[in-house]
Amino acid sequence: MRLTQGAFSFLPDLTDEQIVKQIQYSISKGWALNVEWTDDPHPRNCYWDMWGLPLFGVKDAAAVMFEVNACRKAKPNAYVKINAFDNSRGVESCSLSFIVQRPTSNEPGFTLARTEDKSRFIRYTIQSYATSKPEGERY
Description:
The chain contains 2 helices and 6 strands; from the N terminus they run αββαββββ. It is of the alpha+beta class and 139 residues long.
């Protein structure tokens, strides 16, 4: 199963050259960039771990790619993404977000868990197969 979150997720993985072009586009718009990673890619997990500090005022895509490659090297079995934030309206709103690395092994996918509640209510939640293992051993 292939995780489809963020822009370009239905396309084949972006090459480093294509990633640099997206970074350059974001820089040309004046957007702040950051790199994040996770080993729990649940669709509602919007709190990925940030790699380093946000890259405010970066003018060179090579600086962002340096951080991406450092994260890739340190977390080879994690999802890594780039976020671009537009603060032109006085708030930090995410204008672009895309995955730049997937786990080196297979992507485990998700299961639908059913829970029976009071008054015969049935609730469903999505759980990642990856979370059945302890953190750090998920892939």
